[in-house]
C-alpha cells in the first residue's frame, strides 16, 4: 500500500507493477494533507504515523482498518519534516529522530503507548534517514553543512561515528540487509540540489562502495524490503514522472538487477509504504 499526502490518491500495487487499485483511507480533519511529510513505522503489527508538515508536528496516529486514528499521546519533539522513523528489529518500538528544529539531532522512542526521549546524535541528521547496519539503527548525511557526509550508528551506550559517506547526500533511502550490510538508495547532493543521485551504495565492514545504478535517479521517496526484493518509490525524479523501481537481490545480498515497474504523476515527500494483502482498503 502506498499512502500519499492526498489520501484519495493512495493505492495498492503488486510486486511487478502490473496491477494498481485505489485504496480507500480516511483521516481526521482535512484528509487531503493529513499525512504530508509524515513518517511511519510498524509497532506490534500496527502501522503508526509520526509528525508531518500539516497541523501538529508531534502527532501520532495509527491505521485502524482503513481509518487513520490520532492518538492522545504526543511525541516529545517536533517532527514536521526531514525526520526519520524506524521500527526495532522485534517491532516492539519505533525510533523517531531529527525533525525540523535545530540542532536536528534529537530522538524519541514510542512503544505503542508511551514516548520517551533517548540519545541525541553528535551531528545533525535532518533528511538523513534511518536504516539498520549490523543490527543497529544508522543514519547518513544531513541538510546541514557540517554533517553532509557524516554517518552515525546507535548502540546501548549512544551514537558513535562510522566512516563518512564519499559524497554529499540527503533525501535518500536506507535499507538494512540480513548479512548486516546497509544499502543507500538515491538522494541528492546538498551542495548542488539540481543533481539527483542514481547510485546504490553499500556500507559493509565500515567501508562504502558503489553497488549498482538505478534505472531512474530518485530522491525524497521511500523504500521497503520484502523478502529478496526492495521497492523504491521516488518522491522526486529526473523527467516528467516519478519512478517506481524494484531491486532484486541475489542470495548473497548483492543487487542482481533493477527493474522500472511503474511511476506516479505527482511530486510528494516520503510516501508511506505498508505491506498488505491485495484487497486491503479496496472495494474488491
Automatic annotation (TrEMBL):
Annotated InterPro entries: Gal_Oxase/kelch_b-propeller, Kelch-typ_b-propeller
Top-level taxon: Eukaryota
Stored Gene3D superfamilies: Kelch-type beta propeller
UniProt protein name: Uncharacterized protein
UniProt lineage: Eukaryota, Metazoa, Chordata, Tunicata, Appendicularia
